[in-house]
Amino acid sequence: CNITCSRLENLVVGTAGLRFHASIPLDAHGKPLGVLNVASTDWEELAEDDLELLYTVGDLVSIAVERARLFNKSVELGAVEERNRLARELHDTLAQGLAAIALKLETVDALLEAGIKADRVRDTVQQALIATRANLEEARRSVLDLRAAPLEGKSLVDALNELVVECARKGKLDVRFDHVDASHPLPARVEIGIYRIVQEALTNVVRHAHAEQASVQLIVMPEKIELTITDDGVGFDPTHIPEGHYGLIGINERVRLLGGQVLVNACPGEGTSLEIKMSLESRL
User: Fold this and answer.
1) 132 in a domain, yes or no?
2) Which single residue of 42, 104, 198, 233 could bond 211 by disulfide (Cβ 3.0 to 4.6 Å)?
3) pLDDT tens readout for residues 139-163
4) Could you read off the pLDDT of 88-97 as tens digits, one per residue?
5) Regarding predicted confidence, which is higher, 282 or 270?
């Protein structure tokens, strides 16, 4: 006779001919994940070794299910991080740039109404055009940053080297990159996080620090990572984040999501240093 069980009601091949059925609970850290059902057309009493094997298989399936769940969660968190970063980019650059353009155009309108000479009006229009082009370039860069995969086909060290060179070119400052044991591959999410942290930190240096020199130091140890970014710029009071410095908020968010900590050493007129430490024990 065929067996009947509510757990087999949705079996794709049906229950015809099945004479044996066993259910193994699946859980992770005490949290129920589901049930592993095993059925057969043969009837044979399970020995203790058979039961132990089934429970071992159940444990392996539980681990696989939980890892898949955690991976999906990390992907979702990554998407949230990028949306937050884009929001900060829009506020920190595009919104302010558009406000400056609007102000220039309002000035043009006022000059025209006052009958000011064409040369002065033309100069103001030219300034508005320059600001518009700069804003357009910022918008394109933000979109490219979201779409690009900077680590695809590259090591973290190579990607950071390229980032430092590009930052030095754009910001017209001297940027040095040193690393210790950073050539060893790290979990993908950690590598992407480190890249984005350095990217935001150097962007902050270019936009706000008025620095001549900056440095990035990455030290990878078996149990932890230490990342230090310094500049010789104008500095600031870390207890009061200046208006427009949303990159620092983003860095704190990224480091927190990676289970690390950020120490900000800064003082007006004396440059800035970010010291970031994160554990690798739970991520390798």
Assistant:
1) no
2) 233
3) 776 666 655 566 777 899 999 999 9
4) 666 666 766 7
5) 270
* Predicted TM-score (pTM) of this structure: 0.56
Q: Which domain holds residue 52?
A: 6-70
Q: What is the pLDDT of residue 2?
A: 47
Query: Three-class SS string for 160-175?
Result: HHHHHHHHHHHHCCEE
Domain boundary (20, 39, 70) is at: 70
DSSP assignment string, the chain: -----GGGTT-TT-STT--EEEEEEEEETTEEEEEEEEEESS--PPPHHHHHHHHHHHHHHHHHHHHHHHHHHHHHHHHHHHHHHHHHHIIIIIIHHHHHHHHHHHHHHHHHHTT--HHHHHHHHHHHHHHHHHHHHHHHHHHHHHH--TTTTS-HHHHHHHHHHHHHHHHTSEEEEEEESTTS---HHHHHHHHHHHHHHHHHIIIII--SEEEEEEEE-SSEEEEEEEE-S----TTSPPTT-HHHHHHHHHHHHTTEEEEEEE-TTS-EEEEEEEE-TTT-
End position of a domain, from candidates 45, 70, 95: 70
State how far the Cα of 24 lies from the Cα of 146, in Å rounded to an integer: 44
